[in-house]
């Protein structure tokens, strides 16, 4: 599989979701986080859009969300999140195992996702992910293998305060198994709000290695103006 091409296509897809303003229905607003949804074109479920403000520069926020090493220390929805294959400096494959949700109604899932970082014009960073087949990690009988259709984060400087960031997250997760769609729809908005709040708390204590942060801050996906 050409992982790099798929990663680049997924990033463009997330950019398209970010520019799409039609058809979204607000399903939850809590603690300055807004969750909207619309029917996914990928499966019989919803595409969710989650928006919040993070009081950190875009560069620091992007690095924090991209690096897999510390994810389970702050993302309370996850049991495990490990990089299992590095494609290049901006692209990797990770294996994730979730916690159970909805007081045990949704059992843990595992996912194999292709993650990609790309910087766009205007200091906007996109971290995209999509589920892939990876022969070294086939589905096991221990977990139901879920599937993430194109998902991702769009991080950009807040116009009125560039030292802070606007974070927009897109999620369209196919849980699979024998779950009723109504259970997923009832629990997903609250879980997505919790993710943003957990990220806010987690980044306060996050200490990125300065070299790696510089790499993404100066990441040249487009020519600089001369």
Report on the structure:
- Helices cover 27% and strands 38% of the residues.
- The strands form 2 sheets. Strands 1, 2, 3, 4, 5, 6, 7, 8, 10 and 11 form a 10-stranded mixed β-sheet that branches. It has a two-stranded antiparallel sheet with strand order 9-12.
- The protein has helices spanning 3-19, 58-66, 71-74, 181-204, 210-217, and strands spanning 25-30, 33-39, 46-54, 78-88, 91-98, 109-120, 124-131, 144-145, 147-148, 151-158, 161-171, 173-174.
- 34% of the residues are buried.
- With 226 residues, it is α+β, with helices and mostly antiparallel strands.
- The longest helix has 24 residues, at 181-204.
- Residues 207-216 and 218-226 have low confidence and may be disordered.
- Helix 2 (58-66) packs across helix 5.
- The chain contains 5 helices and 12 strands.
Order of helices and strands: HEEEHHEEEEEEEEEHH
The chain-level mean pLDDT equals: 89
Anisotropy-based shape: globular
- What is the tally of helical segments? 5
Percentage of residues in DSSP E strands: 35-45%
Our measurement of the CA-to-CA distance between the termini, rounded to an integer number of angstroms, reads 37 Å
Largest β-sheet summary: 10 strands, mixed
> How many strand elements?
12
Helix content: 25-40%
Q: Low-confidence parts lasting 5 or more residues at pLDDT below 50? A: 207-216, 218-226
Our Rg estimate from Cα atoms comes to 17 Å
> Which structural category do the helix and sheet elements fall into?
alpha+beta
């Amino acid at each position: 599989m050409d992982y790099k091409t798929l990663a680049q296509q997924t990033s463009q897809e997330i950019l398209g979701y970010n520019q799409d303003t039609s058809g979204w229905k607000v399903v939850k607003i809590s603690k300055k986080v807004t969750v909207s949804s619309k029917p996914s074109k990928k499966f019989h479920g919803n595409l969710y859009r989650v928006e919040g403000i993070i009081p950190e520069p875009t560069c620091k926020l992007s690095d924090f969300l991209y690096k897999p090493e510390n994810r389970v220390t702050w993302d309370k929805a996850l049991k495990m999140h490990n990089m299992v294959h590095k494609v290049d400096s901006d692209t990797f494959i990770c294996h994730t195992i979730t916690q159970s949700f909805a007081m045990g109604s949704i059992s843990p899932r595992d996912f194999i996702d292709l993650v990609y970082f790309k910087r766009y014009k205007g200091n906007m960073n996109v971290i995209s992910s999509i589920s892939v087949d990876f022969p070294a990690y086939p589905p096991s009988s221990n977990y139901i293998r879920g599937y993430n259709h194109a998902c991702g984060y769009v991080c950009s400087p807040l116009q009125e305060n560039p030292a802070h960031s606007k974070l927009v997250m897109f999620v369209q997760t196919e849980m699979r198994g024998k779950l009723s769609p109504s259970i997923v729809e009832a629990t997903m908005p609250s879980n997505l709000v919790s993710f943003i709040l957990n990220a806010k708390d987690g980044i306060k204590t996050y200490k990125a290695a300065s070299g790696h942060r510089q790499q993404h801050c100066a990441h040249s996906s487009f020519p600089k103006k001369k």
